[in-house]
Design brief:
By secondary structure, the chain is of the alpha/beta class. 29% of the residues lie in helices and 17% in strands. It has helices spanning 2-7, 34-39, 41-47, 82-94, 113-118, 180-195, 237-249, 265-272, 305-322, 338-342, 349-361, 391-402, 407-417, 454-458, 464-477, 479-483, 525-532; strands at 15-18, 51-54, 58-59, 71-75, 98-103, 107-109, 132-133, 154-157, 162-165, 172-174, 200-203, 255-259, 281-283, 327-328, 366-370, 485-488, 496-502, 507-513, 519-522, 537-542, 553-556, 561-566. The strands form six sheets. It has an eight-stranded parallel beta sheet with strand order 13-12-11-5-2-1-15-14. Helix 6 runs parallel beside helix 7 (237-249), helix 11 (349-361) packs parallel to helix 15 and helix 12 (391-402) packs antiparallel against helix 13 (407-417). The structure holds 1-O-alpha-D-glucopyranosyl-D-fructose. 1-O-alpha-D-glucopyranosyl-D-fructose (TEU) binds next to loops. Residues 64, 67, 104, 148, 168, 204-205, 261, 297, 333-334, 392 line the site of 1-O-alpha-D-glucopyranosyl-D-fructose.
């Protein structure tokens, strides 16, 4: 383990996630493009980013903003050309940064040539590329599995009289990984991009690729009863991932992150322990369900702070013990902004954004910054459902009303939970459309852009942007951030989350007040005696003024957050 920690360069890296549709438009189309990203590479380099995760730019009907791929080896004209892509890759390399592509192979678009052939007839050579089933004996659905975007997971095909499986949108058909030809195609397309010199892949919902071949009905005895237990971390998933490692990740020395939906820690250890030869690291979402009552995303509740801390801590300790590696994140393109969700995005917006950053960047793993997070972009305010674009939000708005909610109640839920909360255009400056486009943006720009934008923050040394920049630099400087043992310090404090990272030479302490009231934290006696007393402590970063040395007791003003080093 020690060895791989020092060998694997990405353990000291920070990843920046680019949602290309909303990043930077250079053509006036209202949608971002590859050339827009090229324009902003100096900005990302200044921030200290090592790896850019570029979300899908492949040919796609865009029903799910590119997660519905119709051609894995061509660029969608809305985003540019293959020449633009090659230039992007070269520009990234010339800045000593790395490019990570998003690979979406649990499913393809129904517009993909494979699916078009597959639906021709039952004996078409591509039939087995997808998951086709006869109707149930009563003529109904093959089983009761539900789509993640609402409604049944099966679509009927008139032409051939069978259903095909779609765990996401009805135009995202699940690929049949049992078929070796499908696995061969995946190796081929990944090799295509690896040959172009990309450094790695983010693998979309990759723990869903192996389905229980009996396709059983879900009797609901295990929540949520939507079928997911029959295809999540399924029977052959590790075998399939090892095959990809052997044939592509290993030979091209790629950095890889698997997106794991509803996974377990045992599985994530297997996915990310280097000895297993699977992925470099894993995303899991347990800590982002602490405001889902009984696991229900489409019902509101205040988040459970203690549960958030417990989940973060369990995954720190468990993954460390098992030799796994976490991808660290609070934000992505599928989540509302953590700043609005867990802290205060109005009165204490700047403090809150810095607190979210410090809390995350002190943990063990590889941190991910989602575009706009580094300037403290909050959830936009949605006036009306017509402002939203996401397929999931639009489906759920209807389903919530079918289930008895009023239009206003449904909108109130969508406002909090919609994936569009993180998808509004990047706010570059205080000019028209926040400098994102000269045209009409595909989704509205948040009205607070005149005071929340990159230009203003780059000029202010006290800004959220500069706070991120400092944290990203610290990750490279301090070995304890990479391999320090995690100890939780707050003992179920109702307002404060505090932890330490301990190595032989140094100790790091992080303390964050997640409330709008003053809080006081007493360090555990044994910790204080062993690690603080007798050492020299230094405040590395904070978001309000504080005496530089760490005391046995610390008083934290609203949303105060600090990181100390003790040597
Ligand atoms: O998301 C996987 C996923 O399960 C979610 O985060 C999903 O958006 C949520 O559960 C819905 O409530 C990945 C991508 O990140 C997402 O953008 C895609 O829509 C999805 O896969 C399908 O490719």
């Amino acid at each position: 383990m020690k060895n791989s920690i020092t060998q694997d360069w990405w353990r000291k890296s920070t990843v920046y996630q680019v949602y290309p549709k909303s990043f930077k438009d250079t053509t006036g189309s209202g949608e971002g493009d590859i050339r827009g990203l090229i324009e902003k590479l100096d900005y990302l380099q200044d921030l200290g980013i090592d790896i850019i995760w570029l979300q899908p730019v492949y040919v796609s009907p865009q029903n799910d903003n590119g997660y519905d791929v119709a051609d894995y080896c061509e660029i969608n004209p809305e985003y540019g050309t293959m020449e633009d892509f090659d230039e992007l890759a070269a520009e990234i390399r010339s800045r000593n940064m790395h490019l990570m592509l998003d690979i979406v192979v649990n499913h393809s678009s129904t517009e993909h040539a494979w699916f078009q052939a597959s639906r021709q007839s039952k004996d078409n050579p591509y039939r087995d590329y997808y998951i086709w089933k006869d109707p149930a004996p009563d003529g109904g659905l093959p089983n009761n599995w539900q789509s993640k975007f609402g409604g049944p997971a099966w679509q009927y095909d008139e032409g051939t009289g069978q259903y095909f499986l779609t765990l996401f949108d009805k135009t995202q058909a699940d690929l049949n990984w049992e078929n070796p030809k499908v696995r061969e195609e995946v190796v081929k397309l990944m090799t295509f991009w690896a040959e172009k010199g990309v450094s790695g892949f983010r693998m979309d919902v990759i723990n869903l690729i192996s389905k229980d071949q009996d396709f059983p009905n879900d009797d609901g005895s295990v929540l949520p009863g939507d079928g997911r237990r029959f295809y999540t971390d399924g029977p052959r998933v590790h075998e399939y991932v090892k095959e990809m490692h052997e044939r592509v990740f290993g030979p091209y020395n790629l950095v890889t992150v698997g997106e794991m939906s509803s996974t377990t820690m045992e599985n994530c250890i297997l996915y990310s322990n280097p000895a297993e030869k699977e992925f470099s690291m894993t995303f899991n979402f347990h800590h982002l369900k602490v405001d889902y009552p009984k696991g229900q995303k489409w019902e509101l509740m205040p988040y459970d702070f203690e549960q958030l801390k417990r989940l973060l801590s369990d995954w720190q300790i468990g993954m460390q013990q098992g030799g796994g590696w976490n991808a660290l994140f609070f934000n992505n393109h599928d989540q509302p902004r953590a700043l609005s969700r867990f802290t205060d995005d109005t009165k204490y917006r700047t403090e809150s954004a810095k607190l979210i950053a410090t809390t995350l960047h002190g943990l063990q793993g590889t941190p991910y910054v989602f575009q706009g997070e580094e300037i403290g972009m909050p959830n936009p305010y949605w006036n009306d459902i017509s402002e939203l674009r996401d397929i999931e939000s639009k489906n759920m708005y209807q389903i919530l009303q079918q289930n008895g909610k009023s239009a206003d109640e449904a909108l109130a839920i969508i406002r909090e939970r919609s994936r569009d909360n993180s998808r509004t255009p990047m706010q570059w400056d205080d000019g028209p459309q926040a400098g994102f486009t000269s045209g009409t943006p595909w989704i509205k720009v948040d009205e607070r852009y005149p005071s929340i934008n990159v230009k203003q923050q780059m000029n202010d040394p006290e800004s959220i942007y500069h706070h991120y920049k400092k944290l990203i630099a610290l990750r490279k400087e301090l070995q304890v951030l990479t391999d320090g043992r995690y100890i939780r310090l707050d003992e179920a404090h109702p307002q404060v989350y505090a932890y330490a990272r301990v190595s032989e030479k140094e100790t790091l302490v992080v303390m964050s007040n997640f409330s709008d009231r003053e809080a006081s934290l007493q360090l555990p006696d044994d910790f204080h005696t062993e690690y603080v007393e007798g050492g020299l402590s230094k405040l590395l970063i904070g978001n309000t003024k504080l005496e530089p040395a760490l005391q046995a007791q610390t008083v934290l003003t609203p949303y105060a957050s600090y990181m100390w080093i003790i040597r």
